[in-house]
Amino acid sequence: MTEADFLTSTRTFYDAIAEDYAERFSDEIEGKPLDRAVFAAFAELVGRGGSVADLGCGPGRVTAHLATLGLSVFGLDLSESMLAIARRENPGLRFERGSMLELDLPDGALAGAVSWYSSIHTPVDELPRLFAEFHRVLAPGGHLLVAFQAGDVDRHHDRPWGRPVALTFLRRQPEQIIELLRAAGFTLVSRTVREPGPEEVSQQAYLIARRP
After folding, report:
1. For residue 93, is pLDDT > 90?
2. CA-wise closest residue to 207 among 143, 153, 152, 137
3. 205: confidence class by pLDDT, cuts 50, 70, 90
4. Does 4 have pLDDT greater than 80?
5. Which of 73, 132, 186, 198 could pair with 209 in a Cys bridge, judged by C-beta atoms 3.0 to 4.6 Å apart?
């Protein structure tokens, strides 16, 4: 699959399900105290001295939560439908359309970056490029938070909410992502893996890394 293929399929999928997705997961963060603890730790590590990007922000719920923690944060996503919801629900925050693989940001522009389940549609052979781009836009000392479903078996979603689209959610082992982050120049700060929640089918992994 070419870069254009997976970006197009990802954008098409989320454009089609945006309203359903936003309604279904509107209060997800409130019901996950361990996830909130990861966000709180990340916010404290980043501090309040610079800009933070929520990369693959979807309907903006993570962007909004990070803002409540005192971060100067903006969201970026491929899907115009997701961005429309994010802007509607969070009129005081900034949301932009773009690709994580080619960020329209200067080198070292960010104090922090979040990839909250947004790398799970990127093919494994594109991950080194993705993490190199994250490294490029982070200032020295900046922190990156990456969340993903842990495992070896991918999960294919076909016609969610009856919409005529399909997409595969790629599972990775934490050790694999840690190795790729280190190869991109990051230093691992923390590794958190929690068991599946009531409506989850796999472990959830949260990695915080730092650009030296």
Report:
1. yes
2. 143
3. very high
4. no
5. 186
